[in-house]
Amino acid sequence: MAQEFLEKKGLTHLNNRGEAQMVDVSGKPITQRRAIAQGQIRMALSTLEAIEQGNAPKGDVITTAKLAGIMAAKQTAQLIPLCHPLPLHKIQVEIECDRHLPGYQIRATVGTKAETGVEMEALTAVSLAALTLYDMAKALDKTMTIEGIQVIEKTGGQSQTSDK
Amino acid sequence: MAQEFLEKKGLTHLNNRGEAQMVDVSGKPITQRRAIAQGQIRMALSTLEAIEQGNAPKGDVITTAKLAGIMAAKQTAQLIPLCHPLPLHKIQVEIECDRHLPGYQIRATVGTKAETGVEMEALTAVSLAALTLYDMAKALDKTMTIEGIQVIEKTGGQSQTSDK
Amino acid sequence: MAQEFLEKKGLTHLNNRGEAQMVDVSGKPITQRRAIAQGQIRMALSTLEAIEQGNAPKGDVITTAKLAGIMAAKQTAQLIPLCHPLPLHKIQVEIECDRHLPGYQIRATVGTKAETGVEMEALTAVSLAALTLYDMAKALDKTMTIEGIQVIEKTGGQSQTSDK
Amino acid sequence: MAQEFLEKKGLTHLNNRGEAQMVDVSGKPITQRRAIAQGQIRMALSTLEAIEQGNAPKGDVITTAKLAGIMAAKQTAQLIPLCHPLPLHKIQVEIECDRHLPGYQIRATVGTKAETGVEMEALTAVSLAALTLYDMAKALDKTMTIEGIQVIEKTGGQSQTSDK
Amino acid sequence: MAQEFLEKKGLTHLNNRGEAQMVDVSGKPITQRRAIAQGQIRMALSTLEAIEQGNAPKGDVITTAKLAGIMAAKQTAQLIPLCHPLPLHKIQVEIECDRHLPGYQIRATVGTKAETGVEMEALTAVSLAALTLYDMAKALDKTMTIEGIQVIEKTGGQSQTSDK
Amino acid sequence: MAQEFLEKKGLTHLNNRGEAQMVDVSGKPITQRRAIAQGQIRMALSTLEAIEQGNAPKGDVITTAKLAGIMAAKQTAQLIPLCHPLPLHKIQVEIECDRHLPGYQIRATVGTKAETGVEMEALTAVSLAALTLYDMAKALDKTMTIEGIQVIEKTGGQSQTSDK
């Protein structure tokens, strides 16, 4: 009963006894896959201005956050218990200053050629880039919030559905 | 000029040439410190119901997310480039079903006795718990969003300020 | 002399001077491979009963041990010096209460499509699941023993032999 | 009811709702602590002889297993979900050939000065040393078994009891 | 302008806005690739003699350094921010005593079948083997220097050029 | 005999049977400790100029290398088999363009308050910063060499000697 329900509904990380497992992807074809995730960090305008000014000569705050995102994407399978370890062919993290937020918009694009998708890698990259921005500005601002982390595009795999 | 500005404003991860560094905390006293962070994942009500029903017999989705948060907190200094490696004395992750969201409310409490605070550990725990919930439900729902990740309490250190 | 001996006998991690190396698998065909390992943890019956009763409402002890096993399998090549890093397509850890032992029976199944086998991944999953059960019950019982860790099935590769 | 039971019985990794947590050790005194664990790997006598002969000139099999045990002890808190990250002051792994087993006896001694004990570090060192011996001999022998992993001494902490 | 310059010159880790990224290798063919790197550690002759004599019965210093090199090669993508995670088919580290240096010559050979090369893995293996030799002899000698770390052979990929 | 020799000479990573161990530092006092290491990467002048020009707008090459050095310092005990895991209070990596080399001069300063020193952390930071510079310029230049990695200052501990 419950099993049928789960199978229909697709909670594929739970096996037919409701227990956690890393699902078997060995029967899936290897295809080019890409996922794009985004998110943002909201902060006081004065914090944003301090980063932008302090940042101007060297770009370190933004670069540090980008690198943290890229490196975290490569650690996704170590961080998320039921994710498959995958080769990754491309990881790009973009961070844009948004004075209207105010804060930063973060976007991560991850590509691979594998049996399963990379949206968790993209989401992990966005999350760690945001946390790193937080870390570097937290002495200035105790009220920052990380928001809107979501997948905005996923290609490859059957009918573009999330099947990892 | 820029240096004076940075010193006054407190972008302590940037040294006086605007470059990234892991700030020296050796002069700080060791005190009991605690940080609490929260966040949430929003999903379709049908997704929430599927998890809650499928979850009933074993609790695996929620437990998996909690453990991912706890384990990620212990990895914080490896994930966030300029964070100090710290001993951690307590990590607790709580996840509550919220039918009004609909989705889950996540809260992490981290404690230590150290020269610097643990808000990044608490934020990292919340973020990875949320990402793990996402991972386990993503076959059901492509529109989930992770939101509202913020620090809600920080004690210990000078005047309760963020000084890591 | 010694070299010939080693070649015949198959101590393939030692090269012809008796030194450690990670053996070259690039000439091997990529095939579907699977390994199953098992093991057990023996404890006082009162410990087992405490876990089973305390465990009932949330399943946390067993789930935590399973997840530790799954996550450790993904770390095998970082933990065992001469293991090859491999993609993994499936990891399943099963833990059964055995009142006759008394204790828990643990079984791990790992699958991949690669040049070399995954028995070390399966054995690592069993070992860390057992260690995690130990960790969670050690306040109750100082006399637990982990036993009988072995490979019970290995398929794929030439003549089903261990050739990693 | 269940809570009282757990408190009395000491399943300290479960909080009063039966959920997993990393227990708070901040109230505990820092003391010198030491733990010794042991285990063994059983193999065919011919396998043991092959290792001992091949091993003679360089000692690589045994040294590799010792180092794997030492390095794994340092990773314990990353591998076992609810273990505390601790400084470690000493890690020693001893491996003795036992022709009567036949196989190898493994013993690990770990020391620290901390709020909680190091038996999990000692058990992890023994387990990974045994797995590494398995890995290095598996081309010779498909019937090896890892056995008898247990704590044989634990000092430091209140009344020498396991309280991590 | 700058972009064209970069494209011509090949600073492929910088995208057309001069920002860090992990370059997209998904369009590249999978080929057999191999890289060999070398380096050396220079020390006092008396240090070298102490290691060689102390080392004789067990070979531990050299074996420890080799294993550190092999294990580090497998961590390359976690250590070097813009490196791609790759399967590795072979890792060999050789360390030779050189009384004329005096010190040790280190050489690492790494092989894979992938879209991009493995020279960073070979260089990382040499570097960590050298650092481990340093660590094991540093109580004897404060003047050791690690030198001459370079790639000496790279095969596979287009026209044997470095394109990772 | 051999043991006495080793004890006198100070190969403290080898115990009295010549085997690898992580030495016991629990009897040592906790003191403020600092180590500074340096090294350099030599490259073609045209490569240096390309980096400096491409680098101007964003500083990414240098920042990426600095961050890689800082993050690697935090991983030292995972990378070097017999190093003790330590809290780190300060990590600074400086990279200066040297047109006379031509190439980059790298310097790392690490501080802690612990029972043992941090020269391996400083050397590891320099090594990984150098490897990252190599990685980012390798498409331009196949003849780069990493050189002169050494400790230039070590304070704290008994008589400023290396005793880790």
UniProtKB/TrEMBL annotation, chains A, B, C, D, E, F:
Protein name as annotated: Cyclic pyranopterin monophosphate synthase
Domain Molybdopterin cofactor biosynthesis C (MoaC): residue ranges: 22-157
Pfam family, any one: MoaC
GO molecular function: cyclic pyranopterin monophosphate synthase activity
Family indicated by similarity: Belongs to the MoaC family.
Gene transcribed to yield this protein: moaC
Domain of life: Bacteria
InterPro entries (UniProt xref): MoaC, MoaC_bact/euk, MoaC_sf, MoCo_biosynth_MoaA/MoaC, Mopterin_CF_biosynth-C_dom
Broad enzyme group: lyase
Binding-site residues, substrate: 82-84, 120-121
Protein's job: Catalyzes the conversion of (8S)-3',8-cyclo-7,8-dihydroguanosine 5'-triphosphate to cyclic pyranopterin monophosphate (cPMP).
Active site per UniProt: 135
Subunit (UniProt): Homohexamer; trimer of dimers.
Pathway(s): Cofactor biosynthesis; molybdopterin biosynthesis
Keywords: Lyase, Molybdenum cofactor biosynthesis
Entry EC no(s): 4.6.1.17
Kinase listed as a keyword: no
Catalysed reactions listed for this entry: (8S)-3',8-cyclo-7,8-dihydroguanosine 5'-triphosphate = cyclic pyranopterin phosphate + diphosphate
This protein's record includes keyword Amino-acid biosynthesis: no
